[in-house]
Amino acid sequence: MNDATFLHRQPIVPRRAFSLLELLAVVTILGVIAAIVLPRVTQGNDKAKQSVCAHNTGQLNSAIERYYLDNGVWPSANLSELGVSGGTYFPDGLPTCPVSSQAYRIDPSGATKHVVGHTNGDHSP
Length: 125
Hints:
Pfam families: N_methyl. One of its GO terms (biological process) is protein secretion by the type II secretion system. InterPro entries: Bac_GSPG_pilin, N_methyl_site, Pilin-like. This is Type II secretion system protein G. The chain is mostly helical. The chain has a domain at 49-125. The chain is built from 2 helices and 2 strands. Strands 1-2 form a two-stranded antiparallel sheet. The radius of gyration is 32 Å and the shape is rod-shaped. The protein starts with a helix and ends in a 9-residue tail after the last strand.
């Protein structure tokens, strides 16, 4: 080989990195996508919790009616009689409201006894 070719070599071109502007554009696009998708995911989660609460309320209303037929009296407002371990109504314990994470209770107002979940009893968080 000729010594002249070694002296006149082209310098190695470094790899081009992303510019700050390109990185900001990507982060902005990801932020917009997250802002669109996240509310839809959490809204579905809230609807599922409300659906479970409505199901639990129906099951508890059925149980308090059976309790009344079996014993001739309504259970206490906190439903402690229904959740007795090994009992007939809820042997694994009473369910809790998935919306408020609180225990269900009997609504004391009105002539008919019925169970309510969260504060308003209307299945809204």
